[in-house]
Design brief:
The protein is mainly beta. The protein is built from four helices and 22 strands. The strands form four sheets. A six-stranded mixed beta sheet has the order 2-1-4-9-6-7. It is globular.
């Protein structure tokens, strides 16, 4: 969790801060529990019109989640600790393993609201997972004018220069492609047809360069892209321009379909001298990276 957000967005300074950390456990008999802060279906208390600073993260090992609260939008202010230039209103969030989102929550009109997973197809050979109730939001007390509070939130701006703008405008020194795949028995996961080998250097990059990487997902399930030492800017998802307003540390890669592989494009700045040396990039689903979906990069002068 990155401190100092209120220095860039002053409206956050006096807000109650709430952590919502998702984690799951699977049992041998097929049962699964999903907790928030180690609790099952906890109560989240709010007052209508009250603003809270919610810090959400998927700290589980392998599951991908789409979540939302019917009748209660959220206002995203940061992804993986990197601030947006302005709050972005949304009714659902997608969180792969290791992904983090900071958002402003506004207490809705008095009532009970359910934070749930939203069904989607994570793996082509399985049916959609049923919706799971994760938490209950209880909004009680005198209203503070929810509509006017939303207007105040959406008017917020970060005026200072941000790293993401430098990354977006940097010249591309080189373009690379990573190809995610697996064996048919799902026991081995590959990048560019290779299993991870810590003794092998898969990519060599010059310090100071900014590169564009295309990640192709040949598999019919979600994977993710995560690289150590430096964030990145997502520019395309599934062949469509992705107007991201912040940097990422981890991003989910959609599965292949009958129309072709899933795909994202990212712009990565290898510009900070402290990152000189060897480190890794990988899928952040632990069972995928443990089975080989990882590569080694070396940044040199």
């Amino acid at each position: 969790m990155i401190d100092g957000s209120e220095e860039l967005l002053s409206i956050l300074a006096d807000m109650p801060e709430r952590f919502l950390l998702l984690k799951h456990v699977k049992f041998a008999d097929g049962r699964e529990l999903v907790s928030i802060n180690g609790q099952l279906n906890p109560l989240v208390e709010m007052i209508p019109g009250e603003m809270q600073f919610w810090r959400l993260a998927n700290i589980g090992a392998s599951n991908f989640y789409k979540i939302g609260i019917a009748g209660m939008p959220l206002y995203v202010v940061a992804t993986d600790g990197h601030m947006l230039s302005r709050p972005r209103k949304t009714t659902e969030l997608f969180l792969g393993p290791g992904e983090r989102i900071d958002a402003i929550a506004i207490g809705p009109s008095a009532g009970i609201y359910q934070l749930k997973t939203i069904p989607f197809r994570d793996q082509a050979w399985r049916s959609e997972e049923p919706s799971i109730q994760l938490a209950v939001v209880s909004s009680t007390g005198p209203a503070r004018g929810v509509t006017s509070v939303e207007e105040v939130v959406l008017e917020q701006r970060i005026r200072d220069s941000r790293w993401v703008d430098q990354v977006r405008g940097a010249p591309i020194a080189q373009r690379r492609t990573l190809r995610y795949s697996r064996t048919s028995d799902r026991k081995v996961f590959l990048i560019n047809d290779q299993v991870a080998d810590e003794a092998r250097i898969d990519q060599t990059v010059r310090l100071g360069d900014t590169e564009e990487w295309t990640i192709l997902n040949m598999d019919q399930q979600y994977h993710s892209f995560h690289i150590h030492q430096t964030p990145f800017l997502v520019t395309h998802v599934g062949g469509t321009a992705w107007p991201d307003d912040s940097l990422r540390d981890t991003f989910s890669v959609p599965p292949a379909t009958s129309e072709g592989p899933g795909m994202i494009k990212v712009v990565i700045p290898f510009t900070d001298p402290i990152i000189r040396g060897r480190f890794v990039y990988h899928c952040h689903a632990v069972d995928h990276e443990d089975k080989g979906m990882m590569g080694v990069i070396e940044v040199r002068d």
